[in-house]
Amino acid sequence: MAEGVLILSIVVATLRAATPLLLAGLGELVAERSGVLNLGVEGMMLMGAAAGFAVRALSGNAVLGLMAAMLAGTAMAAVFALLTLRLLANQVATGLALTIFGIGLSALTGLPWAGVPAPGLAATIWPGLAHAPPALQQVLLLDPLVWVAFACVFAVDWFLRRTRAGLALRAVGESAEVAHALGTKVLRIRLAAVLFGGAMAGLAGADLSLAYTPMWAENMTAGRGWIALALVVFATWKPWRLVAGALLFGFVTIAQFQAEAFGLSLSPDLLATLPYLATIVVLVLISRDSTRLRLAAPAALGKPFRPTD
Amino acid sequence: MPDSPPPPPQAATPLLAVIGLSKRFGAVMANADVALSVMKGEIHALLGENGAGKSTLVKMIYGLVEPDGGRIEWEGREVRIPDPNAARALGIGMVFQHFSQFETLTVAENIALGLGGREMPDALAPRIRETAARYGLAVDPNRHVFHLSVGERQRVEILRCLMQAPQLLILDEPTSVLTPQEAQSLFTVLRRLAAEGCAILYIGHKLEEIRTLCHTATVLRAGRVAGTCDPRLVSPMELATMMVGSELVQPRRRTHKPGRVVLTVNDLTLEPGDAHGIPLQGVRFELRAGEILGIAGVAGNGQKELLAALSGERLSRPSAIRLGAEAIGALGPVARRRAGLGFIPEERLGRGAVAELSLAENSMLTRLASPVVAGGLVRRGAARALAKRLIERFKVRAAGVGASAGSLSGGNMQKFIVGRELDARPLVLLAAHPTWGVDVGATIAIRQALLDLAAAGAGIVVVSEDLAELFEIADRIAVLSSGRLGEAVALSQLTLEAVGLQMTGHATAECLDAA
Ligand SMILES: Nc1ncnc2c1ncn2[C@@H]1O[C@H](COP(=O)(O)OP(=O)(O)OP(=O)(O)O)[C@@H](O)[C@H]1O
Ligand SMILES: [Mg+2]
User: Fold this and answer.
1) How far B510 CA sits from the closest chain A CA (Å)?
2) Which fold has domain B16-244?
3) pLDDT of amino acid B2
4) Which fold has domain B261-351+417-514?
5) Can you tell me the ipTM of this complex?
6) Domain B16-244 matches domain B261-351+417-514 at the CATH topology level
7) Is B362 in the pocket of ligand 1 (CB under 6 A)?
8) Could you report the per-residue pLDDT of A73-129, keeping only the tens digit for each?
């Protein structure tokens, strides 16, 4: 029985740790499939985390908090879109700047909330959580955002493969020039994709500050935005593979704690590098087959598009 | 040609009228006060040298380039065409000079995107098959475009337009990449479309084609209309003179005296690079100094693989390919260039040149020796001088050595690349379709340059589907079919018909007897 609960708790903890990665990664995946590389995920997540926590604390309403987080992420993405799509700034440099900007701005706006305790999302939804039997308690910890993340994977995958707009988005990521020559609205599609990426990153941030570790602390994303970026490549730009990647990363995060519980002394630093090693291995594997690499990576990724007159 | 085009039906107002259209790119006046009208059911040729402004004109009609001045009338009413969607809504379809395809998407997905409607690729597939079958343009809707040969890709482009049932079909040099057979079947399609009332605006450089296909021709010279005529009533020479503004001289062959063997290919066998490629099977030939060997064949019979193997993009057994006495089969492209092998690839952008780089920078790409590169350092001055020399010698129309390769018209880009390779004075030159999309004047110039290079002692392999071209410059011709290379036969023992038959896979013996 106790072992069952332990396994269940590992599964639940893995799912919870995977959720922010999945949300942020999915947003970035869509942006990259349209050909835009936004390295500002970390910054957008932080803004989402800060805004979500603040609005929730002020209003007492978690849903409002989540919406504020998405709005904050979208606003950050809008800045990025203006600079890279309209003013044709370099995407890599702008993305890095966006992250640095997000770290600073979130620290500033989040200052009053630092260290303020707050109930977790699950505890808010299920007031009786603390008194439930252990097994049920574990299951109840799977808050709605976990399910939202998986629903989003399903929706994004369906959108990309099965809809006209999804096809157009992939086409724009393949070659903006050709898409333009065929009359596709390149910039409009890219703008939408970047804004979606921002909203998802904001939501991912809120998942951290409202559900995963319900609090606000400066730089609390601790590099998860970068992991999400790596995951997109790991997943070779495919939504369902992103799930596999996020679960792997989530599990490794959990394993660092669980290994100690089992009395295994693995260096946490070593464990933390595992996912990155896995990403590199996957990159090497997909690069071995040029056909597959060509099919996987959006050909126009990171290339600015300048419509001729 | 027995099937000369039927007379166009006479209508009062033209379907499309272009009046006083102008467009300037920086210092270049691409179009100046151009007037043109196309009737329903008419096949209208648009002729002109490379850089004369043909593509610019049709891009304005298709809503891709905004005119600086002038107007466009559709069925007598003035229209504004801000983007391709507007053009499509009017009933205008266009096949672009450079492929407008998404390589990693399937044929059906590409066509769905090109139609601009709401239909999903899967729902479109049966209709694509049906249209393809009706016009004899076999393609598999589910294949990825990057697996297709250029000929097949062209078919997809044409199919994309046919699917929208256009009233005006614009084709920007559609046959420059087609085999003669493919071109003929395209003409059948076009004649049928015209008979159904579709107007066709046809850009091309092959004057014989124009004369059998088109009812009217408008000639552009340096952005202006130089004249309009009925191409059936004037000779190709007259047309060419109208385009160039002066008389043309045909290329001259020097007497042939083969020297020592410079390139030996011995039992070259190669697995295909991808699932749809053709394996090379025991290819063998010898090339002597001063000789031009033509390799004929229908696209997709292993040309891509043979070129990749010869250029060094794909490696083989060291002794399978020998340059002089040196075994180069296992050497990469750079080492082969060093050893004296020049290569003119079939794709100008992507393989031959980098669109974003300037002409000066592009001129250095394959010139790894002094004076352009010295001691591992690039010498910009020398590179600019080289680019300048190429521009002058091969009459490339460009804004200067600083112009990006992508800003050149298609034919001018080809002239530049050919010039770069010729100028390196290679021991052996490998040329894939050297005059694709190049105008009459430049075609003659390029062929003459190849002949001159051979006369100066180089061995040249020309891979081309244009038999007329091979017959004009080659000394011997071998046919590549299903990855096997036939015996190279001296030109004096060959006829166009014999090679044509061999290309389509018939026995060789009787063809040779007939010759
Ligand atoms: N986007 C552009 N920017 C700058 N110059 C351009 C651009 N497009 C075309 N030009 C210039 O305008 C002129 C006409 O080009 P265009 O492509 O219309 O020629 P073309 O008649 O189609 O030639 P070709 O037979 O080689 O295709 C050329 O000198 C070309 O360099
Ligand atoms: Mg052109």
Assistant:
1) 42
2) Rossmann fold (3.40.50)
3) 44
4) Rossmann fold (3.40.50)
5) 0.82
6) yes
7) no
8) 999 999 999 999 999 999 999 999 999 999 999 999 999 988 888 888 877 777 777
Calpha distance B21→B247 (Å, rounded): 29
Compute and round to an integer the Cα radius of gyration of chain A.
20
How far is CA B50 from each of CA B3, B204, B222, B352, B363, rounded to the nearest angstrom? 29, 10, 9, 18, 20
* pLDDT band for position B510 (cuts 50, 70, 90): very low
3-state secondary structure chain A: CHHHHHHHHHHHHHHHHHHHHHHHHHHHHHHHHCCCCCCCHHHHHHHHHHHHHHHHHHHCCHHHHHHHHHHHHHHHHHHHHHHHHHCCCCHHHHHHHHHHHHHHHHHHHHHHHECCCCCCHHHHHCCCHHHCCHHHHHHHCCCHHHHHHHHHHHHHHHHHHHCHHHHHHHHHHHCHHHHHHCCCCHHHHHHHHHHHHHHHHHHHHHHHHHHHCCCECCCCCCCHHHHHHHHHHHCCCCHHHHHHHHHHHHHHHHHHHHHHHCCCCCCHHHHHHHHHHHHHHHHHHHHHCHHHHHHHCCCCCCCCCCCCC
- Residues B202, B210: contact at Cβ < 8 Å? yes
Ligand 1 center to residue B170 CA distance, Å?
17
Rg, chain B, Cα only: 23
With CB atoms and an 8 Å threshold, state whether B104 touches A294. Answer: yes
Quick check: B66 and A184 CB within 8 A? no
The residue extents of the domains of chain B are 16-244, 261-351+417-514
Q: Tokens 């996912």: give the residue.
A: A275
Confirm if B339 and B424 have CB atoms less than 8 A apart.
no
Q: Please give the number of the atom of ligand 1 that sits closest to the Cα of B398.
A: 31
Most confident of A285-289, B6-10, B248-252, B306-310: B306-310
Decide if A295 and B101 are in contact by the 8 Å CB cutoff: no
CB B73 within 8 A of CB B79: yes
Start-to-end C-alpha separation, chain A: 70
* pTM listed for this prediction: 0.79
Judging contacts by C-beta atoms under 8 Å, the chain B residues touching residue A164 are: 112, 118-120
Q: Which of B432, B428, B408, B404 is nearest to B418 (CA)?
A: B432
B454 CA from centroid of ligand 2 (Å): 30
Q: Which of A199-203, B77-81, B201-205, B329-333 has the highest mean pLDDT?
A: A199-203
* Amino acid identity for residue B424 in this structure: A
**Percent of residues, chain B, with pLDDT higher than 90:** 36
What value does the mean pLDDT take over residues B303-315?
90
Question: Is the C-alpha dihedral spanning B410, B411, B414, B420 positive or negative?
Answer: negative
Query: Residue B181 belongs to what H/E stretch?
Result: helix B180-195
CA distance, residue B49 to nearest chain A CA (Å): 23
Question: In the CATH scheme, what is the code of domain A2-296?
Answer: 1.10.3470
Nearest CA to ligand 1 atom 29: B51
CA distances from B43 to B91, B175, B178 (A): 16, 15, 19
Distance CA B115, CA A290 (A): 30
Using CA atoms, how far apart are residues B105 and A167, in angstroms rounded to an integer? Answer: 9
What phi, psi does B415 have (nearest 5°)?
Answer: -60, -40
Residue B74: strand, helix, or coil: strand
Interface touch B85/A183, C-beta < 8 Å: yes
Q: What is the Å distance from ligand 2's center to A203 Cα? A: 49
